[in-house]
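Structure in, sequence out. Go:
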């Protein structure tokens, strides 16, 4: 049997013969079942891919926030060292040399009061650096367990904390500790400025440079410390999660997506 045997009679010469349309009805029933078995399950892989993508996005954002916090920590630590070690970095006049004291002069042949001021400078430095790590620990907790939703108000967090009592207790603890440490820092800074002023202005005054450097270094960290104290006080009194390390203060106002499932019931 040839192909011409299947052609209809009286077919015009040169006509083009098209194959019959393909349908699954022509398949053997067993093969149709086999093809259906091999068909991909709808949405299963796509859902898993979307979930993984969302989790990666949140993880990347948390990592960026943490890196920013660490960078700001080092910048703040440098400012604190300049603002607290006033007996070291403020220009002073040495009578025995007839010139401005060198860096080594600020640590040698010191009077009793000079030693006391240096001790207080380094004590204040230690207290303020410790406050940075307290603030960084609080910031890490905020980044890990809370998040910022611009669609909601900055003061939305207190409305969801009743459903997460453990998170609420931890937030209050961090806010209370940070505020208390800031108050201690303020007291140390005020006393440090007074003790240092007596040293550099009454005993080792070196002209206008002493005034400008003293004021510049003192104000370098004073504004940040006052702002930090205010933010921590608001956070403590109102159960807010205000950030201290972002360039613009961000209020963490929702539970982080990774921990929403940890909803707790008292």
């Amino acid at each position: 049997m040839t192909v011409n045997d299947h052609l209809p009679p009286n077919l015009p010469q040169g006509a083009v013969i098209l194959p019959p349309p393909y349908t699954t009805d022509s398949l053997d029933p067993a093969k149709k079942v086999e093809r259906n078995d091999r068909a991909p399950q709808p949405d299963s892989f796509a859902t898993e891919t979307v979930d993984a993508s969302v989790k990666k996005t949140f993880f990347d954002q948390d990592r960026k926030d943490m890196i920013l916090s660490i960078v700001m920590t080092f910048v703040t630590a440098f400012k604190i060292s300049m603002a607290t070690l006033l007996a070291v970095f403020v220009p002073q006049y040495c009578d025995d040399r007839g010139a401005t004291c060198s860096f080594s002069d600020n640590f040698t042949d010191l009077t009793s009061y000079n030693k006391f001021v240096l001790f207080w400078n380094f004590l204040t430095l230690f207290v303020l650096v410790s406050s940075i790590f307290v603030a960084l620990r609080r910031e890490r907790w905020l980044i890990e367990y809370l998040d910022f939703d611009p669609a909601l108000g900055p003061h939305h967090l207190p409305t969801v904390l009743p459903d997460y009592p453990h998170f609420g207790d931890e937030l209050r603890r961090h806010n209370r500790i940070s505020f208390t440490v800031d108050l201690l820092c303020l007291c140390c800074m005020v006393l440090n400025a007074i003790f240092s002023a007596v040293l550099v202005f009454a005993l080792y005054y070196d002209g206008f440079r002493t005034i400008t450097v003293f004021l510049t270094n003192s104000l370098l960290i004073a504004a940040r410390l006052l702002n930090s104290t205010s933010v921590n006080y608001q956070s403590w009194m109102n159960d807010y999660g205000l950030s201290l390390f972002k360039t613009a203060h961000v209020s963490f106002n929702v539970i982080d997506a990774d921990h929403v499932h940890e909803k707790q019931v008292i």
